[in-house]
Amino acid sequence: MRLARGHVEPASSTCHFGALPNTPGNTAEMNKNTSSTHVATDGGKFTTWFGNEPSPLFGTLHVPAGGTARGGVVLCPPIGKEHVDSYRGLMLLAQKLCAQGMLVLRFDYLGTGDSSGEQTREDAVEMWESSVVEAAEFLQSCGVREITLVGLRVGALIATSAASKIREITTLVLWDPVIRGRTFVQQQKALNLLAAGPDADDPLIPLVGMSVHPLAAQRLSGMNLAALPVDPSINVLVASRPEHADTVGVRQLVESLSADHMNIDGQAPYIEPADFAVQIPWHTVSSLAQWISDSTRSLRTSVTAHLRHSTTLLNSQFELPITECISYGGTNRMLTIRTAPASSVPGGPTLVLYGTASEHRIGPSRLWVELARELAGYGITTIRFDRTSTGETTAAQDREISTIYTPEQRADGVEAASNAGVRPENLVVAGLCSGSWSAAIAAAELGANRAILVNPLRWTTRQLEFTRSQSLAHAEYSRGTFALRAHNWAVRFKDKLRDRLPYRAWLALGQIGLVQVPEVLLAPLVEAGVATTVLVSPTDEEWFNENRGHSGVRRLRKAFGTIEIRRLEQGDHALIGPRIRASVHEEMKNSILTTFGISHSRVHDYSQRRRRQ
């Protein structure tokens, strides 16, 4: 339903656990005193907290139809950006395994994704290993005995290291494995340096999309897959890229583990995509699922999963309890996580965060999670969600390719802000890159107190510009269309047009979608009374200037007022580098607190009073 500008559809402040549409009624209340715990006894996909109550893990459980399973499979993901890029591929593998009768758990290690904990702890690697053990124990508590571990990239190292601590593990799959931790850490540091530049002042070790403590990096560097002990009774598969098959490392690994070996294709555009358009190697996924199914000899047993859709975490910085709650809702049953103070009041100050491209609700490798948990200490509720075809929203598909700037993305963004259930004066929206586009459109349509746009690339609001994602969708778009010919013409002559055309003529081209003009996206915001902050990296500032952004800002300020452009001193567009992530975190936090009139000392004063009580 499209809403009038300035109105927000009310929503319940209670979190509701939702099964997938094909499994209605398959959950039952477990505890009459709480709405956060349920039992699943039939098939479906269930997102849940599990494990140790003080430090819970976040995961998604795939239960076969009929509520019986032949065995349990734990999918151990990579870390950092590789974790984000591989998310939907691991989901596809889980779906295929579940269809073959396996109970499957996908999860985030402690300190990563949506799980609790800090990623910069000295013992981070040990935390990851303990997470695998907890994941296996959770599956066994559901009623399966035999466990298969599947480790992708660094996940192969972590899974193999944890295997000796798991009872009744029968199968181990090493998918495109990192064999030597030292090589991985060195490669990640080099890639980070290329993407984000040097940062001699950072005491942490920067990997692509995350930072780890030097001792954790040292521990990871010391790991060698071929040297880790594996019980000879465990059935092992090594699935490697063809170009790695004859390397000494892979040959020694296969020989030392007496493993089966499988050549797999399509890893580079999956794990190291050249742009945002991650391509799932679905042939490989199908082959892995079939091999695991063929290797599983267990008979089916009934499974019962105890599910938790909310959890209470401790904001360690301020010693305050905060609550995170999982729900599915809206037209496409988008997964939403609401982070709030434990004693929050519905309708209070609320932030809605918008991810970009294949990034799901964690934002640029966990920035959104950390920001949400910190802001809860100031009394602010944060909503993170997975738009259609990202994260947990909608099933993964074989030939799925990430798309952005689509009508679906636009509609999801408006719906997410609408479902926040707060009045415009209590709403702030923020997003990165294509997420900033969604946030701006939602704020202009529904009304908001402030919009924070981080590194916007697209400034048009009409659908005439053809992005990289659209050019990949061969069946939907034709190179002969008028719109594409017009766009290509505009690209070829843009530099000449930009400097020679009067600004109003340049703006007119932007309004019909032929060129990028910042005023096109910003004008509806300021006209709606939405205070707007644009944060730009050095390269994004160049893009803003090239497209005559300052000319538009001067016009908008003269007519309407509040709009600011803030340059981030160092860093990359995608927030790969730790320094720019920290800068964005601080800039966003300060802007949000100022918008809501919240003092930086508020939490400190509250926590002091709480300790005295």
Indicate the low-confidence ranges by residue numbers. Answer: 1-35, 465-480, 604-613
What's the N-to-C terminus distance?
A: 48 Å
Number of helices, where a helix is a run of at least 4 consecutive DSSP H or I residues: 20
The radius of gyration is 24 Å
Number of strands: 24
- Summarize model confidence as the mean pLDDT: 87
Strand percent estimate: 15-25%
Strand order of the largest sheet: 16-17-18-20-19-21-22-23-24
Shape: globular
Question: Which structural class do you get from the secondary structure elements?
Answer: alpha/beta
Biggest sheet details? 9 strands, mixed
Which range best describes the helical content: under 10%, 10-25%, 25-40%, 40-55%, 55-70% or over 70%? 25-40%
